[in-house]
Design brief:
mainly alpha
């Protein structure tokens, strides 16, 4: 089965999205986000809401931490103190990608005893496996690998494809979060470090993917489209989520330094013989196929836009460079054809089933989401709106947030942004 034979299925769904979500096509004048994001908005100068959110998040998160070495020093002291009676100070997730690899390098540099955790969902590229092995061997960091039941996970991935939402990576992302929480809990480790960072991962359209922590969403999709129960699949219930917020500190450690993805790549290559990928998240064969073929052809999304846009705002890529890269695919035609054939065969799909998946009208997370999560989300939006209103009022007699934090540097914070967590 060839990619060319699927071109007719591409046009129907993509044109439908273009017409229903965007009456007039626009692109941000600062980055390359466009109206393929149905929720995008522009100011009078043509700059999108994602860029404004980026600036605000960078000021709130990165400048507050990265520009103040004492914040990092205080964090490391707390981590070491919390881990004084445990075998490890922190848990780190590793995929072989640049961000998680640099986190491994950073924890060793900071003198922390880290346990690396990797989720094997059956889609690791050979390069990702090599990168993980080279890096952790040289850093002398122990690795724990969670191997998913392939038949069970394959059925869940197919169920998400049949559900026709743009969230095909949710089963992987949720399992990663669940395994990290379980390992940290079992080993009595109170800190989990992630590679998420505000500088290179802040342009995140909600319509392109959401719900990775919603176990009800996953369960609803599997009940409707799956062929087997989820018996061994790692998952987080609402109670687990509450426990993780109380007992586990999830830290986006890269926000505590002046992180540059380009400099990180060069350092990893030079010191550990780590090798880069064609594009972000290409350490997973399925993610590479999903981003390069499925999302553009079925949903009209090109996730490179959000990756490049954050790099533009970070000063690591020019807008002209991004536009030039968007004209061509990140994956060579031959490689994309090989990925297509590999995914088609590995998922055990028939041509009729695959055609039905590509031709099914796109649906949204809200069509299958847990009602409890949707209610909590509404409550959260209300609380956040009230907090913003209160914060905007004159602070008569009140100390500033900066003063409060300076007075109590060990005060627990929630500075973590949303994160592009695929693969």
């Amino acid at each position: 089965m060839s990619l060319e034979s699927q071109e007719n299925t591409r046009t129907r769904s993509q044109y439908m999205i273009d017409k229903s979500w965007s009456t007039s096509y626009r692109t941000c004048r600062r980055c390359v986000m466009d109206s393929s994001d149905p929720d995008i908005s522009f100011d009078a100068e043509g700059v999108c809401n994602h860029c404004h959110s980026y600036d605000a998040g960078l000021q709130r998160i990165v400048v507050a931490n990265g520009a103040n070495p004492r914040r990092l020093e205080a964090l490391i002291r707390r981590v070491k103190h919390a881990g004084r009676n445990s075998e490890y100070d922190c848990i780190i997730g590793v995929s072989g990608g640049v961000d998680s690899s640099y986190v491994a390098h950073l924890t060793k540099t900071l003198g922390l005893r880290a346990l690396a955790v990797h989720l094997d969902n059956g889609w690791d590229s050979e390069l990702a496996v090599q990168n993980i092995e080279r890096l952790l061997t040289q850093l002398d960091i122990e690795l724990y690998t969670e191997v998913l039941d392939w038949e069970e996970f394959r059925d869940l991935q197919v169920a998400f494809l049949c559900a026709s939402t743009p969230d095909s990576e949710v089963p992987t992302d949720h399992a990663i979060a669940a395994v990290l929480f379980r390992v940290a809990t079992d080993l009595k480790v109170h800190y989990v470090f992630s590679g998420c960072n505000a500088r290179t991962e802040s342009h995140l359209p909600r319509a392109w993917s959401q719900g990775f922590l919603d176990w009800g969403y996953i369960r609803n999709v599997n009940r409707r489209f799956g062929m087997r129960p989820l018996m061994s699949y790692p998952h987080l219930t609402l109670v687990d989520l509450l426990k993780s917020r109380i007992f586990i500190n999830s830290i986006d450690i890269l926000n505590y330094i002046s992180y540059s993805m380009q400099e990180a790549c060069l350092r990893l290559e030079r010191e550990y013989s780590w090798r880069p990928y064609e594009s972000k998240h290409h350490e997973s064969i399925y993610t590479r196929f999903y981003q390069e073929f499925l999302l553009p052809r079925k949903f009209g999304f090109d996730k490179r836009r959000m990756h490049y846009s954050s790099l533009i705002c970070a000063g690591e890529m020019s807008r002209d460079q991004a536009i030039e890269l968007l004209v061509r695919t990140a994956t060579a035609d031959k490689q994309l054809q090989e990925d297509y054939e590999y995914v088609f065969k590995k998922l055990s799909l028939t041509e009729a089933e695959w055609a039905a998946i590509l031709n099914a009208p796109p649906r949204r997370y809200e069509d299958f989401a847990s009602r409890v999560i949707l209610v909590l989300r509404r409550v959260w939006h209300i609380v956040r709106s009230v907090n913003r209103y209160v914060a905007s009022r004159p602070a008569s007699g009140r100390s500033s947030v900066a003063e409060d934090r300076a007075a109590d540097p060990a005060k627990k914070e929630d500075l973590s942004p949303e994160c592009d967590r695929e693969g």
